[in-house]
Write a structure and sequence with these properties.
42% of the residues lie in helices and 2% in strands. By secondary structure, the chain is mainly alpha-helical. The chain has a two-stranded antiparallel sheet.
Length: 164
Amino acid sequence: MIRPALHAGLRTMIRPALRAGLGPIYSRRMKPAATTMVLLCCAAVLGACGSQGISVAKTSPYYRGAVIFRDHCSGCHTLATVGAEGSATSIKDRLRTNGPNFDFRKENVEQVLYAIHNGGFSGAIMPENIVLGTEAHEVASFLAQYSGLQAQKVPTTNITLSTK
C-alpha cells in the first residue's frame, strides 16, 4: 500500500501531465510513434488475411482436387493456386522432405497417379497412397490442369532425323 504522503506527492507530479493531455506513461513524442506502430501492425495483419488460399472456383470440376491437394500435399509441395508453399525456395534451405514446386513443374494425370501410388518417383520420402480412389484421380486431374503455370516457356525446334 502507498503511504498517504507518497501518494500525495505522486498526484502532484501526475496532475500537470494529465492536464496537458498526456498520460503518466506517454510523452508527446511517444504518442505518434505508438500510433504509427499500432497502425503498421494492423496493416500487416490485414495484409496477410486472404493472401493464401484456393483460387479455383468452387463450381470448377477441379475444386475438390484443389482442396484435397491443399489438405494432403501442401506441406511438401508448392502451388500458388492453393496457397501451398512446401517446396524449398533456395538450395541452401532445402530439406529432404521438400517436394517439387508445381508452379514450375508441369505434370500429367498418369505421372501424378504414379507418384501418388508409389510414393513419388524415388519412393523415398512421399508416403505411398497418400490419397486413394476417386480422391487420387481428383488430385491428378487438378494438378494436370494447374501445374506448370509459371514454367518458363522455351522455344522449340522440330528436328528431322536422317534415316540414311
